[in-house]
Write a structure and sequence with these properties.
Distance between the termini: 31 Å
InterPro entries: cNMP-bd_dom, cNMP-bd_dom_sf, Env_Response_Regulators, HTH_CRP, RmlC-like_jellyroll, WH-like_DNA-bd_sf, WH_DNA-bd_sf
Protein name: Crp/Fnr family transcriptional regulator
Strand content: 15-25%
Structural class: alpha+beta
Largest sheet: 4 strands, antiparallel
Domain Cyclic nucleotide-binding: 18-121
Radius of gyration: 18 Å
Keywords: DNA-binding, Transcription, Transcription regulation
Order of helices and strands: HEEEEEEHEEHHHEEHHEEH
Pfam families: cNMP_binding, HTH_Crp_2
Number of strands: 12
């Protein structure tokens, strides 16, 4: 699964994966500390609220990061793919997992126990600063999206979400840009603060306008211009 960078799109700093921020020597040294773990599609890599503290470095495949509220409402927080690090917050703070991470396709990772990971950071200032930079970029991007979403209607937020997914996880086909992440309507709804029924209505509108083609956990964006028009109000 590869991301499609569309003409005119500018990459965001938070999309630069952790391993890509490291020098080759540091990258090899970090990976040598762990052991490989593989996950089939839909398998859970990390469970929200569990007390584990190891980190996972994704070497192949894509995952989704979700969080559930007490009332069962689930939101899609992020997508993490090759080169990304997941679970670092629990490793650094010792707190339970803040989210659930699930494989969207066959995923391979390198698992590093907390003690080895934190010791490596202590003796590798460059890696520590790279991790700090990644955390800062992710926080800044999340703040920016929250600010943008606060000024948008649900309809505009949904169009903006589809555009973002197309940029980061789109795959060009003869029909259009296929979203390479099998997300449910509930997960899409949780990403824009809407109900599942609202997402169904919005998808129906987009299908009627010829902007998207949908199937079971599948979507192809046929007209990016329609989504841009909606997202920009």
């Amino acid at each position: 699964m590869t991301a499609t960078h569309l003409p005119g799109d500018e990459g965001l700093d938070d999309r630069v994966p952790f391993l890509a921020r490291l020098e080759s020597e540091d990258r090899s040294a970090l990976l040598s500390l762990g052991h490989e773990l593989s996950f089939a599609p839909r398998m859970v890599l990390l469970h929200q609220s569990e007390p584990s503290s190891h980190v996972l470095i994704v070497t192949h495949g894509w995952t989704k990061v979700t969080a559930a509220a007490a009332n069962g409402y689930e939101a899609l927080l992020a997508l993490r793919g090759p080169g990304d690090i997941i679970g670092e917050s629990a490793a650094l703070t010792g707190r339970p997992r803040s989210a659930t991470v699930t494989a969207l396709e066959p995923v391979r990772t390198v698992a590093v126990v907390r003690e080895h990971f934190t010791a490596f950071l202590a003796r590798s200032p460059a890696v520590s600063f790279a991790l700090l930079g990644l955390t800062s970029d992710r926080t800044r991007a999340a703040d920016r999206r929250r600010l943008e979403f606060a000024s948008m209607s649900v309809r505009e937020r949904f169009a903006a979400l589809l555009l973002d997914l197309a940029r980061t996880n789109g795959r060009r086909t003869s029909e259009g840009i296929e979203l390479s992440v099998p997300l449910s309507k509930q997960e899409l709804a949780g990403s824009v603060g809407a109900s599942r029924e609202m997402v169904q209505r919005l998808l129906k509108e987009l299908r009627e306008r010829g902007a998207v083609v949908t199937g079971r956990r599948a979507m192809v964006i046929v007209r990016m211009d329609v989504l841009r028009q909606i997202a920009h109000g």
